[in-house]
Amino acid sequence: MAGAKDIIIDCDPGQDDAVALLLAVGDSRVNLLGVTTVGGNQSLPKVTHNARAVLEAAHARDVCVHAGSARPLVRRLRVAAEVHGETGLDGVRLPEPVRPLDEGHAVVWIIETVMAREPGTVTLVALGPLTNIALAARMEPRIVERVREVVLMGGAVHEGNASPVAEFNIATDPEAAHIVFHEAWPLTMVGLDVTHQALCTPEVQRRIAGLGSDIASHVCGMMDFFRRAYRANRAFPDPPVHDPCAVAYVIDPGVMEVRRCPVDIELAGIVTAGMTVADLRGPEPDARACHTQVGLRLDIERFWNLVVSAIEAIG
Fold this sequence. Notes:
The chain has helices spanning about 15-25, 45-55, 80-85, 105-115, 130-140, 145, 170, 175-180, 190-195, 200-210, 215-235, 245-250, 300-315; strands at about 5-10, 30-35, 65, 120-125, 145-155, 185-190, 255-260, 265, 275-280, 290-300. The protein is of the alpha/beta class. The protein has a single domain (about 5-315), classed as Inosine-uridine Nucleoside N-ribohydrolase, Chain A, CATH 3.90.245. The strands form two sheets. It has an eight-stranded mixed sheet, with helices on both faces. A two-stranded antiparallel ribbon has the order 8-9. Strand 2, helix 2 and strand 3 form a beta-alpha-beta unit. Helix 1 (about 15-25) crosses helix 13 (about 300-315) and helix 4 (about 105-115) crosses helix 5 (about 130-140). The chain is globular, with a radius of gyration of 18 Å. The two termini are about 20 Å apart. The mean pLDDT is about 95. One of its GO terms (molecular function) is hydrolase activity.
């Protein structure tokens, strides 16, 4: 689409990743160049299959999928089966993908895609652990100055979910996060402070169900499982759909209030490893002095309007 933002989504589907993919497919203001996968919510083979199945269900067979890193840079992978199920996408039976898995490692494909396009035109949207993005920046440092921005779902200014202070994606591979946050590209952290406001309430789910399409039915099945999992494991009455918040920000920055501030990653803390330490002291720095910003508040109605409209467009 002319004027649409070119994006690459790096993800580990995951019910909320699935909704994020649907938002990217269904909204014409972004052009999904391709999808890369990383071990996180479930093992790499499972999340890669899930990404392909979601795109198949969304009639987006033209979107390539490249598998990436199966484990964090240093640590052992610990999946979130208690939240996402044994498949990583429990609660729905999606069609089997027709398009074969694309050849080539995700990291290599990210580098080649960014280097082949005009500088400042490709946005990296990271929805899982940051292993692939960190490896790409280390393997080809020139991509850092060519990427338009990095928008990631991860971290938290206040409380975490993998630990009292660390969010799952960052805690899974804090060394990778440290690399990504310390590169010079513009970076927006869409953390739990925002995503815990994006609850799929019964009212929201009725809006989606009312669309009456197969893809809407798939989303409702995912949300039914997600709701049960969050009630059992996180004491949430309704599930927060984290990852679409990052895609929504790329589509419509007005959907979110952000604050520019330095952010660092705790690597050595005994009880704080993976913590995103956001320094909100003092006046807000300008973009020349600080390349990182964090999301703080979500326009909930505006966000769900984006998601529902995208699902309707696919259906």
